[in-house]
Protein backbone atom coordinates (compact mmCIF):
# COMPACT_ATOMS: atom_id res chain seq x y z
CA UNK A 1 0.00 0.00 0.00
CA UNK A 2 1.33 3.46 -0.90
CA UNK A 3 -0.51 6.23 0.94
CA UNK A 4 0.04 9.64 -0.59
CA UNK A 5 -2.45 11.78 1.34
CA UNK A 6 -4.80 11.27 4.29
CA UNK A 7 -6.89 13.51 6.53
CA UNK A 8 -9.75 13.31 9.04
CA UNK A 9 -12.60 15.76 9.69
CA UNK A 10 -15.53 15.65 12.11
CA UNK A 11 -19.21 16.36 11.48
CA UNK A 12 -21.93 16.37 14.14
CA UNK A 13 -25.53 17.23 13.37
CA UNK A 14 -28.57 16.53 15.57
CA UNK A 15 -31.57 18.40 16.94
CA UNK A 16 -29.43 20.43 19.36
CA UNK A 17 -25.98 20.62 17.79
CA UNK A 18 -24.40 21.29 14.43
CA UNK A 19 -20.61 21.32 14.31
CA UNK A 20 -18.08 20.86 11.52
CA UNK A 21 -14.52 20.49 12.81
CA UNK A 22 -11.99 20.61 9.99
CA UNK A 23 -8.38 19.51 10.36
CA UNK A 24 -5.94 22.08 8.96
CA UNK A 25 -3.26 19.74 7.66
CA UNK A 26 -2.85 16.19 6.43
CA UNK A 27 -2.09 13.24 8.68
CA UNK A 28 1.50 12.02 8.84
CA UNK A 29 1.98 8.76 6.96
CA UNK A 30 3.24 6.35 9.62
CA UNK A 31 2.48 2.89 11.00
CA UNK A 32 -0.65 4.06 12.82
CA UNK A 33 -2.11 5.63 9.70
CA UNK A 34 -1.24 2.55 7.65
CA UNK A 35 -3.01 0.41 10.27
CA UNK A 36 -6.09 2.64 10.10
CA UNK A 37 -6.15 2.34 6.32
CA UNK A 38 -5.75 -1.44 6.43
CA UNK A 39 -8.52 -1.87 9.02
CA UNK A 40 -11.02 0.30 7.18
CA UNK A 41 -10.32 -1.34 3.81
CA UNK A 42 -10.62 -4.82 5.34
CA UNK A 43 -13.96 -3.93 6.93
CA UNK A 44 -15.14 -2.52 3.61
CA UNK A 45 -14.06 -5.55 1.55
CA UNK A 46 -15.75 -7.92 4.03
CA UNK A 47 -19.15 -6.35 3.49
CA UNK A 48 -21.63 -8.40 1.53
CA UNK A 49 -23.44 -5.50 -0.11
CA UNK A 50 -21.59 -3.06 -2.32
CA UNK A 51 -22.82 -0.91 -5.18
CA UNK A 52 -20.77 -0.32 -8.32
CA UNK A 53 -21.13 2.57 -10.69
CA UNK A 54 -19.88 6.01 -11.59
CA UNK A 55 -20.57 9.70 -11.07
CA UNK A 56 -23.82 11.05 -12.48
CA UNK A 57 -23.42 12.79 -15.82
CA UNK A 58 -24.75 16.07 -14.46
CA UNK A 59 -22.16 18.06 -12.54
CA UNK A 60 -22.09 17.43 -8.79
CA UNK A 61 -19.87 18.77 -6.03
CA UNK A 62 -18.00 15.51 -5.40
CA UNK A 63 -17.34 14.90 -9.07
CA UNK A 64 -16.35 18.51 -9.78
CA UNK A 65 -13.99 18.73 -6.81
CA UNK A 66 -12.39 15.37 -7.62
CA UNK A 67 -11.70 16.57 -11.16
CA UNK A 68 -10.28 19.88 -9.91
CA UNK A 69 -8.01 18.04 -7.49
CA UNK A 70 -6.84 15.69 -10.25
CA UNK A 71 -6.11 18.71 -12.44
CA UNK A 72 -4.04 20.24 -9.63
CA UNK A 73 -6.23 23.31 -9.13
CA UNK A 74 -7.11 22.44 -5.51
CA UNK A 75 -5.09 20.67 -2.81
CA UNK A 76 -6.09 17.41 -1.14
CA UNK A 77 -6.92 19.29 2.06
CA UNK A 78 -9.12 21.77 0.19
CA UNK A 79 -10.81 18.92 -1.67
CA UNK A 80 -11.83 17.24 1.59
CA UNK A 81 -12.81 20.48 3.33
CA UNK A 82 -15.15 21.45 0.51
CA UNK A 83 -16.65 17.95 0.46
CA UNK A 84 -17.36 18.14 4.19
CA UNK A 85 -19.00 21.57 3.81
CA UNK A 86 -21.25 20.15 1.10
CA UNK A 87 -22.13 17.14 3.28
CA UNK A 88 -22.96 19.44 6.18
CA UNK A 89 -25.25 21.47 3.92
CA UNK A 90 -26.98 18.31 2.64
CA UNK A 91 -27.73 16.87 6.09
CA UNK A 92 -28.88 20.24 7.46
CA UNK A 93 -31.29 20.79 4.56
CA UNK A 94 -32.77 17.32 5.07
CA UNK A 95 -32.64 17.59 8.89
CA UNK A 96 -30.70 14.34 9.23
CA UNK A 97 -28.72 13.22 12.28
CA UNK A 98 -25.09 12.27 11.77
CA UNK A 99 -22.09 11.93 14.06
CA UNK A 100 -18.50 10.80 13.63
CA UNK A 101 -15.31 11.48 11.77
CA UNK A 102 -14.73 11.26 8.02
CA UNK A 103 -11.49 9.72 6.81
CA UNK A 104 -10.20 10.56 3.34
CA UNK A 105 -7.15 8.87 1.81
CA UNK A 106 -5.33 8.79 -1.50
CA UNK A 107 -3.36 5.68 -2.34
CA UNK A 108 -1.36 4.61 -5.36
CA UNK A 109 -1.18 0.92 -6.18
CA UNK A 110 0.58 -0.93 -8.96
CA UNK A 111 -2.55 -1.14 -11.11
CA UNK A 112 -4.70 1.74 -9.86
CA UNK A 113 -4.91 5.02 -8.00
CA UNK A 114 -7.75 5.37 -5.51
CA UNK A 115 -9.48 8.09 -3.51
CA UNK A 116 -11.04 6.50 -0.39
CA UNK A 117 -13.66 7.98 1.94
CA UNK A 118 -15.06 6.46 5.14
CA UNK A 119 -17.46 7.50 7.87
CA UNK A 120 -15.74 6.42 11.09
CA UNK A 121 -17.95 5.65 14.10
CA UNK A 122 -16.83 5.20 17.68
CA UNK A 123 -17.36 3.16 20.83
CA UNK A 124 -16.42 3.72 24.45
CA UNK A 125 -13.42 1.81 25.74
CA UNK A 126 -10.83 1.64 28.50
CA UNK A 127 -7.10 2.20 28.35
CA UNK A 128 -4.21 1.98 30.78
CA UNK A 129 -2.02 5.06 30.98
CA UNK A 130 1.76 4.99 31.35
CA UNK A 131 1.18 5.35 35.09
CA UNK A 132 -1.01 2.22 34.86
CA UNK A 133 -4.16 4.13 35.72
CA UNK A 134 -7.44 3.32 34.01
CA UNK A 135 -8.79 5.96 31.68
CA UNK A 136 -11.77 6.21 29.40
CA UNK A 137 -11.17 6.23 25.65
CA UNK A 138 -13.10 6.74 22.43
CA UNK A 139 -12.17 3.95 20.03
CA UNK A 140 -12.84 3.62 16.31
CA UNK A 141 -15.45 0.89 15.90
CA UNK A 142 -14.36 -0.98 12.78
CA UNK A 143 -17.18 -3.51 13.25
CA UNK A 144 -19.67 -0.68 12.71
CA UNK A 145 -17.87 1.23 9.98
CA UNK A 146 -20.29 3.62 8.32
CA UNK A 147 -20.79 4.62 4.71
CA UNK A 148 -17.65 4.39 2.62
CA UNK A 149 -16.14 3.66 -0.73
CA UNK A 150 -13.57 4.72 -3.25
CA UNK A 151 -13.09 6.32 -6.64
CA UNK A 152 -10.77 4.35 -8.92
CA UNK A 153 -9.09 7.38 -10.46
CA UNK A 154 -7.29 5.28 -13.07
CA UNK A 155 -10.55 3.75 -14.31
CA UNK A 156 -12.28 7.14 -14.22
CA UNK A 157 -9.55 8.67 -16.41
CA UNK A 158 -10.03 5.79 -18.87
CA UNK A 159 -13.82 6.46 -19.00
CA UNK A 160 -14.64 2.96 -17.78
CA UNK A 161 -18.21 2.10 -16.81
CA UNK A 162 -17.34 1.19 -13.21
CA UNK A 163 -15.00 3.33 -11.16
CA UNK A 164 -17.05 4.33 -8.10
CA UNK A 165 -17.74 1.72 -5.40
CA UNK A 166 -19.80 2.44 -2.27
CA UNK A 167 -21.28 0.50 0.63
CA UNK A 168 -23.48 1.38 3.59
CA UNK A 169 -22.68 0.45 7.15
CA UNK A 170 -24.38 -0.04 10.47
CA UNK A 171 -27.31 2.33 11.11
CA UNK A 172 -27.09 4.12 7.76
CA UNK A 173 -30.65 3.47 6.55
CA UNK A 174 -31.95 7.00 7.14
CA UNK A 175 -28.87 8.51 5.47
CA UNK A 176 -28.72 6.35 2.34
CA UNK A 177 -30.39 8.71 -0.12
CA UNK A 178 -28.48 11.76 1.12
CA UNK A 179 -25.10 9.99 1.02
CA UNK A 180 -25.62 8.64 -2.50
CA UNK A 181 -26.52 12.15 -3.62
CA UNK A 182 -23.47 13.49 -1.80
CA UNK A 183 -21.14 11.31 -3.90
CA UNK A 184 -23.22 11.80 -7.11
CA UNK A 185 -23.50 8.00 -7.40
CA UNK A 186 -25.18 6.24 -10.34
CA UNK A 187 -25.47 2.43 -10.29
CA UNK A 188 -24.17 0.92 -13.54
CA UNK A 189 -23.66 -2.76 -12.62
CA UNK A 190 -26.13 -5.33 -11.24
CA UNK A 191 -23.83 -7.85 -9.55
CA UNK A 192 -26.72 -10.10 -8.51
CA UNK A 193 -27.90 -10.58 -12.10
CA UNK A 194 -24.34 -11.15 -13.36
CA UNK A 195 -23.60 -13.72 -10.66
CA UNK A 196 -26.82 -15.64 -11.08
CA UNK A 197 -26.46 -15.79 -14.85
CA UNK A 198 -22.89 -17.07 -14.61
CA UNK A 199 -23.81 -19.76 -12.08
CA UNK A 200 -26.73 -20.88 -14.25
CA UNK A 201 -24.19 -21.36 -17.05
CA UNK A 202 -21.97 -23.33 -14.64
CA UNK A 203 -24.97 -25.48 -13.73
CA UNK A 204 -25.80 -26.15 -17.39
CA UNK A 205 -22.17 -26.99 -18.17
CA UNK A 206 -21.88 -29.31 -15.17
CA UNK A 207 -24.88 -31.27 -16.45
CA UNK A 208 -22.80 -32.21 -19.51
CA UNK A 209 -20.33 -33.96 -17.18
CA UNK A 210 -20.71 -37.30 -15.42
CA UNK A 211 -23.07 -36.86 -12.44
CA UNK A 212 -20.46 -37.06 -9.67
CA UNK A 213 -18.03 -34.75 -11.45
CA UNK A 214 -20.81 -32.35 -12.37
CA UNK A 215 -21.95 -32.03 -8.77
CA UNK A 216 -18.38 -31.47 -7.60
CA UNK A 217 -17.80 -28.92 -10.36
CA UNK A 218 -20.79 -26.81 -9.28
CA UNK A 219 -19.63 -26.92 -5.66
CA UNK A 220 -16.07 -25.89 -6.54
CA UNK A 221 -17.28 -23.10 -8.83
CA UNK A 222 -19.34 -21.52 -6.05
CA UNK A 223 -16.43 -21.91 -3.61
CA UNK A 224 -14.10 -20.19 -6.08
CA UNK A 225 -16.52 -17.29 -6.59
CA UNK A 226 -16.98 -16.98 -2.82
CA UNK A 227 -13.22 -16.80 -2.31
CA UNK A 228 -12.89 -14.13 -5.00
CA UNK A 229 -15.62 -12.14 -3.25
CA UNK A 230 -13.72 -12.33 0.05
CA UNK A 231 -10.57 -11.08 -1.70
CA UNK A 232 -12.47 -8.25 -3.35
CA UNK A 233 -11.57 -9.66 -6.79
CA UNK A 234 -13.60 -10.27 -9.93
CA UNK A 235 -14.35 -13.69 -11.38
CA UNK A 236 -12.87 -14.26 -14.84
CA UNK A 237 -14.41 -17.09 -16.86
CA UNK A 238 -11.14 -18.12 -18.55
CA UNK A 239 -9.32 -18.26 -15.21
CA UNK A 240 -11.98 -20.25 -13.37
CA UNK A 241 -12.18 -22.68 -16.29
CA UNK A 242 -8.48 -23.46 -15.94
CA UNK A 243 -8.54 -23.64 -12.13
CA UNK A 244 -11.51 -25.99 -11.99
CA UNK A 245 -10.31 -28.20 -14.84
CA UNK A 246 -7.08 -28.79 -12.91
CA UNK A 247 -8.80 -29.21 -9.55
CA UNK A 248 -11.84 -31.27 -10.55
CA UNK A 249 -10.24 -33.05 -13.49
CA UNK A 250 -13.16 -32.88 -15.91
CA UNK A 251 -11.19 -34.18 -18.89
CA UNK A 252 -14.14 -33.39 -21.12
CA UNK A 253 -14.11 -32.16 -24.72
CA UNK A 254 -15.03 -28.65 -23.55
CA UNK A 255 -13.90 -26.31 -20.82
CA UNK A 256 -16.34 -23.96 -19.17
CA UNK A 257 -14.89 -21.09 -21.23
CA UNK A 258 -15.37 -22.87 -24.55
CA UNK A 259 -18.86 -23.99 -23.47
CA UNK A 260 -19.77 -20.34 -22.81
CA UNK A 261 -18.48 -19.30 -26.25
CA UNK A 262 -20.75 -21.82 -27.95
CA UNK A 263 -23.89 -21.56 -25.83
CA UNK A 264 -23.78 -18.06 -24.27
CA UNK A 265 -21.39 -15.93 -26.35
CA UNK A 266 -23.02 -12.70 -25.14
CA UNK A 267 -22.55 -13.54 -21.43
CA UNK A 268 -20.02 -11.53 -19.45
CA UNK A 269 -16.59 -13.14 -19.27
CA UNK A 270 -15.74 -11.20 -16.12
CA UNK A 271 -18.02 -10.11 -13.28
CA UNK A 272 -18.09 -8.99 -9.66
CA UNK A 273 -19.53 -11.80 -7.47
CA UNK A 274 -22.58 -11.01 -5.38
CA UNK A 275 -22.49 -12.68 -1.95
CA UNK A 276 -26.25 -12.99 -1.52
CA UNK A 277 -26.61 -14.63 -4.94
CA UNK A 278 -23.78 -17.06 -4.19
CA UNK A 279 -25.58 -18.21 -1.04
CA UNK A 280 -28.62 -19.14 -3.11
CA UNK A 281 -26.46 -21.64 -4.99
CA UNK A 282 -25.04 -23.07 -1.76
CA UNK A 283 -28.12 -23.53 0.39
CA UNK A 284 -31.88 -23.51 0.11
CA UNK A 285 -33.39 -21.48 2.92
CA UNK A 286 -36.82 -20.31 3.93
CA UNK A 287 -38.79 -19.50 7.05
CA UNK A 288 -42.15 -18.48 8.41
CA UNK A 289 -43.05 -17.54 11.98
CA UNK A 290 -43.42 -21.25 12.79
CA UNK A 291 -40.82 -22.98 10.59
CA UNK A 292 -37.22 -22.34 9.53
CA UNK A 293 -35.58 -24.62 6.96
CA UNK A 294 -32.05 -24.57 5.56
CA UNK A 295 -30.13 -27.28 3.75
CA UNK A 296 -27.25 -27.67 1.33
CA UNK A 297 -28.07 -27.77 -2.38
CA UNK A 298 -26.07 -30.98 -2.64
CA UNK A 299 -28.60 -33.11 -0.71
CA UNK A 300 -31.65 -32.14 -2.77
CA UNK A 301 -32.80 -35.36 -4.39
CA UNK A 302 -30.90 -37.41 -1.80
CA UNK A 303 -31.72 -36.82 1.86
CA UNK A 304 -34.23 -34.14 0.90
CA UNK A 305 -36.84 -34.73 -1.81
CA UNK A 306 -39.29 -32.17 -3.15
CA UNK A 307 -42.69 -33.01 -4.63
CA UNK A 308 -43.85 -30.01 -6.70
CA UNK A 309 -47.36 -31.43 -7.09
CA UNK A 310 -48.02 -31.39 -3.34
CA UNK A 311 -45.44 -28.66 -2.60
CA UNK A 312 -43.96 -30.83 0.13
CA UNK A 313 -40.50 -31.90 1.32
CA UNK A 314 -39.53 -35.36 2.52
CA UNK A 315 -36.46 -35.37 4.73
CA UNK A 316 -34.51 -38.46 5.77
CA UNK A 317 -31.32 -38.94 7.77
CA UNK A 318 -32.36 -36.28 10.28
CA UNK A 319 -29.75 -34.76 12.63
CA UNK A 320 -29.44 -36.82 15.82
CA UNK A 321 -30.23 -33.90 18.13
CA UNK A 322 -33.43 -33.16 16.18
CA UNK A 323 -34.43 -36.83 16.31
CA UNK A 324 -33.94 -36.83 20.06
CA UNK A 325 -36.15 -33.77 20.47
CA UNK A 326 -38.90 -35.23 18.28
CA UNK A 327 -38.91 -38.60 20.02
CA UNK A 328 -38.99 -36.89 23.39
CA UNK A 329 -41.95 -34.78 22.27
CA UNK A 330 -44.07 -37.87 21.52
CA UNK A 331 -42.79 -39.90 24.44
CA UNK A 332 -40.75 -42.41 22.45
CA UNK A 333 -37.25 -41.44 23.54
CA UNK A 334 -34.97 -44.43 24.04
TrEMBL record:
The keyword Signal does not apply. One of its GO terms (cellular component) is bacterial nucleoid. Its main location: cytoplasm. Keywords: Cytoplasm. It is found in: Cytoplasm, Nucleoid. It comes from the Bacteria. InterPro entries: Nucleoid_associated_NdpA (IPR007358). Pfam families: NA37. The keyword Cytoplasm applies. GO terms for molecular function: double-stranded DNA binding; single-stranded RNA binding. Belongs to the YejK family. This is Nucleoid-associated protein NdpA.
Amino acid sequence: MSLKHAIVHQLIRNTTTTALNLRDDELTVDDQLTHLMTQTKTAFYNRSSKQYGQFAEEAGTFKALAQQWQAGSVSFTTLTEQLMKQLQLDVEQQELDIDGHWFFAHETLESSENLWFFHLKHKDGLMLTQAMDLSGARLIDFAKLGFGGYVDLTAMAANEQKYLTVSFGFGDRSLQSALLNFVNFVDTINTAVDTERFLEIVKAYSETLPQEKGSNYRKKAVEYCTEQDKLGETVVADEIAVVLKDEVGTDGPQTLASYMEVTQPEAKREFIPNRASLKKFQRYTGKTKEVSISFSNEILGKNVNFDPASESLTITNLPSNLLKQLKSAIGEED
